[in-house]
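Researcher: Sequence recovery benchmark, item below. Answer with residues only.
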């Protein structure tokens, strides 16, 4: 029997937030899977920048044609543990009264699925669940996503959800539907084949300006600071022709021109993935813009791929470099070496990219990290002719670096996920302080703005 299922993407509570093409892809994949199983799917996005009630109130944030942009924000009280931080703490997204009115339109909901992103954004999740509970009493609430996976015990104790799904949710949600409602599965994907999943239910998005495309799950690397292996125990990839089919589907049927890749390993084995994808996009005359705000792997960048990326319309490219310190490169996973950065930047510039286009992520605030290491890394990136982008380290439970972070952090990161917030520099020390970080950040900003 068909069930009415409501999907909810909650607020962000933080000192700063910007929409770099964020989409709750995991939640929308589950929505599509449940729809294939004959259920009625509805969606409330607390981050919706185009909600009519917000527009009527004149609260449209500044947006870009690419689909990125600002969220509306309201300053709210800081949690006690963050009161020492001299920044405004905000709720990003629609107003709570608007969310409540949206919920009231779904009194027939029989199940609510709510997702979670950063571990330290969990307050937006718990507040949303509280309002759901008040407005839709008795309706089971299922929580999944990053916070639910990485801080499962905390989520069980504090989120207010009835059920917690940790990790990939497709198999678990179908089992839960059977346990709760006695629902027999009409369609079950081949969990070893990503192409057997239906496209995410992005048609539920109010104004679909861009689409995030999945080409793989997991990562062949195992960097000490990264949680990719926690969400996926192996690296699996899609068929590049099926990826091109999906791009064409959104381009032809919904007019979407901007596509985003968040894959950890988009450029790994390029002849088997990114090259055939882009060749197909060009062959089908799809005319797209591509964005990669995540840190791509530099090692694969050569003359051919650089030219292909530029000609295919990759407008936003960021690469993970982390540090120029050889010892730290080895300790964190050995993903890239200094000469590989120098070579990659040369090829990218020959292909047509400007210095400001080539963003190189440098991790700062790592456990025990010295200011000199960060400064040397910034200077090396500048010397190579690229743009350094400081990425503040956030400690993630379950990663190889977690125990070291717990030992060296001045905060109780074990028991309070709010302390994972990178704005705090959770593993700062007497040498690499907030003041030093702000000095580096200001120097980089002055170079480009």
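Model:
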């Amino acid at each position: 029997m068909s069930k009415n299922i409501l999907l909810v993407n909650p607020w962000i509570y933080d000192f700063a937030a910007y929409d770099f093409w964020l989409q709750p892809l995991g939640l929308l994949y589950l929505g599509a899977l449940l729809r294939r199983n004959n259920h009625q799917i509805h969606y409330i996005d607390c981050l919706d920048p185009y909600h009519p009630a917000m527009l009527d109130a004149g609260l449209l944030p500044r947006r870009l044609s690419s689909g990125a942009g600002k969220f509306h924000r309201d300053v709210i009280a800081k949690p006690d543990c963050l009161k020492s931080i001299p920044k405004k703490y905000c709720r990003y997204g629609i107003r709570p009264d608007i969310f409540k009115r949206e919920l009231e339109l779904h009194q027939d909901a029989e199940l609510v699925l709510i997702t979670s992103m950063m571990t330290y954004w969990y307050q937006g999740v718990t507040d949303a669940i509280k309002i759901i509970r008040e407005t839709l009493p008795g309706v089971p609430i299922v929580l999944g996503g990053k916070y639910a996976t990485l801080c499962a015990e905390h989520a069980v104790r504090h989120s207010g959800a009835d059920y917690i799904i940790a990790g990939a949710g497709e198999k678990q949600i179908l089992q839960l539907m059977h346990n709760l409602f006695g629902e027999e599965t009409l369609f079950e994907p081949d969990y070893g084949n990503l192409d057997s999943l239906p496209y995410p239910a992005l048609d539920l998005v109010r104004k679909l300006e861009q689409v995030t495309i999945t080409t793989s799950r997991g990562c062949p690397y195992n960097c000490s600071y990264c949680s990719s292996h926690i969400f996926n125990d192996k690296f699996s990839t899609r068929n590049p022709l099926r990826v091109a089919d999906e791009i064409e589907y959104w381009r032809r049927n919904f007019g979407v021109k901007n596509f985003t890749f968040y894959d950890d390993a988009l450029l790994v084995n390029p002849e088997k993935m990114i090259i055939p994808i882009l060749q197909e996009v060009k062959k089908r005359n799809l005319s797209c813009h591509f964005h990669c705000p995540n840190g791509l792997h530099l090692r694969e960048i050569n003359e051919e791929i650089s030219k292909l990326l530029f000609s295919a319309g990759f407008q936003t490219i960021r690469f993970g470099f982390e540090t120029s310190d050889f010892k730290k490169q080895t300790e964190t996973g050995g993903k890239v070496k200094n000469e590989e950065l120098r070579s990659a930047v040369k090829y990218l510039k020959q292909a047509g990219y400007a210095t400001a286009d080539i963003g190189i992520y440098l991790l700062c605030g790592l456990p025990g990290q010295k200011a000199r290491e960060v400064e040397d890394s910034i200077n090396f990136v500048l010397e190579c002719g690229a743009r350094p982008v400081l990425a503040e380290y956030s400690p993630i439970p379950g990663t190889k670096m977690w125990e070291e972070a717990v030992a060296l952090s001045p905060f109780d990161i074990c028991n309070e996920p709010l302390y994972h917030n990178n704005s705090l520099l959770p593993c700062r020390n007497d040498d690499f302080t907030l003041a030093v970080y702000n000095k580096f950040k200001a120097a980089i900003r002055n170079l480009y703005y």
